[in-house]
Amino acid sequence: MGHGxxxxxxxxxxxxxxxxxxxxxxxxxxxxxPVAAEQVSVTAAPRVTGVxxxxxxxxxxxxxxxxxxxRTDVAxxxxxxxxMLAPGEELPRIRTVDGVTIVPVLEERLVVExxxxxxxxxxxxxxxxxxxxxxxxxxxxxxxxxxxxxAPDQAQRGPISSQPGEN
Length: 167
Prior knowledge:
Shape: elongated
Number of strands: 6
Number of helices: 0
Distance between the termini: 67 Å
Structural class: mainly beta
Strand content: over 45%
Oligomer: single chain
Order of helices and strands: EEEEEE
Strand order of the largest sheet: 3-6-5-4
Helix content: under 10%
């Protein structure tokens, strides 16, 4: 072994040289070995310092809610036509003209021969309206109250509040 400090490893109990920036000690002074080292460990034990109580209340609040409603109104008008269709003329179909839906109403009449007559047409007009309405509604809101009481051997550290921004 050379000169310098030696370290006793707690794992394998073997002597290992410790790196040292100092020059080795002269042979006469001898070798220094550490004999004991102290270690400390800290643990925490749980202890009751107080009690916390939480109360939850639900309240109802009357309020008005405003919303936009869309309503579609339909008007039906009967227009008499009373026109005989020409022989071979195609039967009129349901059609839409300028936003008005036209439904033909047909009738067969006995003439020496049977012919189709356009008896009437139904004119259906669609109108869309929007209006704002206010309707009363019931809303629920909950509030929380937290109360802390100290254990008999502890002083109270301060109130605890459930409201945001308060201490």
